[in-house]
Write a structure and sequence with these properties.
A 10-stranded antiparallel sheet has the order 4-3-2-1-5-6-7-8-11-12. The protein has a two-stranded antiparallel ribbon with strand order 9-10. It contains 3 helices and 12 strands; from the N terminus they run ββββββββββββααα. By secondary structure, it is mainly β. It is flat and about 65 Å long.
Length: about 180
Amino acid sequence: KGSPYLNNKYENGKIIFSNGNTYSAAIRLNIGNQKFEIQNKNTKEIVELNLDETAKVLLSGRIYSTQSLNINGSRIIALLDECNINGDFKLYYYAKKNIEVPKKMNTPAPASGFEKSELPEWKDFSSYYISYNGNYYQLPTSHKKMSSMKIFTDIDYLSGDRRSAKPQAIIAGIARLNGR
């Protein structure tokens, strides 16, 4: 169930190389495997794009770059959305989905000889990261932990009833850290 893509449709985007060259293409981001896919406009052939540190992708007004992160003791290469990278404190958004089988209920069902198998579904594991002096720190996803950091005001931070972070509030918090 669900989709591994940030957006299912291909959008006009640009690959920007460190030497200044650019390449325009129809692009979408598969956040399940952290790869961009390019679709040939004529043949509709789809090609996976393997980025390295020498290129960035501009897609939907956002710039994505490849970064090396230490997550839970493992070093990974991740595609990060550069939310606010102007200053000592840099903010990145790591869009990530994993496929999971839904958890079964603990209530025993009567034996019928037929058990409905649960379909795996894509679950969101996205998070924000702050980079400072070359180190990356994952921001907590819970409201209580985020509020205790005193970087974000409750008025700016809350997003409706879900009590999740508004991206604008996190970006503004990083700007305050950078003294802007």
